[in-house]
Specification:
With 82 residues, this protein is an alpha+beta fold. The chain has a five-stranded antiparallel beta sheet with strand order 2-1-3-4-5. The chain has a single domain, classed as Herpes Virus-1. It binds zinc ion (2 copies).
Length: 82
């Protein structure tokens, strides 16, 4: 378990899409924005599941889901919407 050390790295570097998926050419996935640092990653159901990967790497517990039905907050430790 590591402490987050590169919070400012997210600024200007991320756009409103999952960067990892853009590289691999995927698009139209559900996105989650990390409430702790602003990292944008794709939610489960996508090929990469980079939002969950971000949680595993940083231990940032809350991510805001951006879906067609509006935004909702997901808690990874609780594995449910909060
Ligand atoms: Zn992704
Ligand atoms: Zn984060």
């Amino acid at each position: 378990m590591r402490a987050p050390t590169s919070i400012t790295r997210a600024e200007g570097e991320r756009r409103a899409s999952c960067e990892e998926c853009l590289v691999s050419g995927a698009d139209g996935v559900i996105l989650r924005i990390c409430a702790s640092c602003g990292h944008i990653g794709c939610a489960e159901g996508s090929r990469g599941d980079h939002a969950a990967q971000h949680y595993a790497e940083t231990d940032h517990p809350i991510a805001v889901l951006i879906g067609s039905e509006g935004a909702s907050s997901w808690s990874y430790p609780d594995r449910r919407t909060i």
